[in-house]
Specification:
Elements (H helix, E strand, L loop, with lengths): L2 H10 L13 H11 L11 E6 L1 H23 L2 H10 L19 H14 L7 H9 L9 E8 L3 H21 L3 E5 L7 H6 L6 E10 L25
Antiparallel strand pairs: 1-2, 2-4, 3-4
Helix pairs in contact: 2-7, 3-4
The chain binds flavin mononucleotide.
Flavin mononucleotide binds next to strand 3.
Length: about 240
């Protein structure tokens, strides 16, 4: 295999944040999952499972996530009293299996701030435009219009390595989708509430929702031409003593 072609495939994969309303055939989904299963795995245990939501199931999950985000978002932006009521009523409180939101460590926080600034500048949302930011964030819960939402679960009994294995699986999946002309976006946002997914799928008790992935055919929307910065390898290479 030509390594230049492989490098070009890797470099051209970017998160897709606007999709066409065009269904993905089941045989294409199956081929992508089959490619994903070629990832290495801790002792070949493959301690992850995936729920593939399409059609009405996808729509019901999305509707519920959008409803909860509307409630949670209002409380987060609102007065202290709104926040108190939010905690008392509990409707919209996160039901995630993992702690999805936590403060970034100081050394990596600037990278996260930069990607946020760069993305919002690219799509024309001004600094301080909280409504514009909220609207973009809310699109997460419509899976950016993607016809397929994949929910990746990891086995509780192998905590670190199930998450690492799931990451390898997800990367293979996203590259395979890309090679077939589909777009994807890994979405931590889709793991904030796990019970709407469990309501639709028979998820074994020992599996925790790690992450979602939106998948479908990319639209020509400007958001899809965003190119996240790539750090030089020197930034992640540990030096000799
Ligand atoms: C585990 C994980 C969770 C992510 N969650 C979200 C998300 O909730 N919403 C979103 O728009 N992008 C999300 N992303 C996409 C990242 O922002 C994106 O991968 C990063 O900025 C690099 O850009 P690229 O994918 O275009 O190379 C996530 C990526 C990963 C790996």
């Amino acid at each position: 295999m030509d390594s230049a072609i492989f490098s070009a495939l890797l470099a051209s994969r970017r998160s897709t944040r606007d999709f066409l309303p065009k269904a993905v055939p089941q045989d294409v989904i199956d081929a992508i999952l089959t490619d994903a299963m070629t990832a290495p795995s801790w002792s070949n245990t493959r301690p992850y499972m995936v729920a593939v939501a399409t059609g009405d199931v996808r729509d019901r999950i999305s509707t519920e996530l959008q409803r909860r985000w509307a409630i949670a978002g209002r409380a987060l932006r609102g007065s202290w009293w709104d926040k108190v009521m939010f905690f008392l009523k509990r409707d919209g409180l996160p039901t995630s299996d993992y702690q999805v939101w936590r403060p970034y460590p100081k050394d990596v926080q600037p990278r996260s701030q930069k990607i946020g600034r760069d993305l919002y500048t690219h799509i024309g949302v001004a600094r301080g435009d909280k409504v514009g930011r909220d609207e973009q964030w809310a699109r997460n819960f419509d899976m950016f219009g993607a016809p397929v939402a994949l929910f990746v679960f990891t086995h509780k009994g192998l905590p670190t390595y199930s998450v690492s294995d799931a990451g390898l699986f997800m990367q293979n999946l996203m590259l395979s989708a890309h090679a077939r002309g589909l777009g994807t976006c890994a979405q931590g946002a889709l793991a904030v509430w796990s019970d709407p997914v469990r309501k639709e799928f028979n998820v074994p008790k020992q599996y925790k929702l790690l992450c979602g992935i939106a998948m479908g055919y990319p639209s020509k929307d400007n958001v899809n031409s965003f190119r996240a910065e790539r750090l030089p390898i020197a930034d992640i290479t540990i030096k000799n003593r």
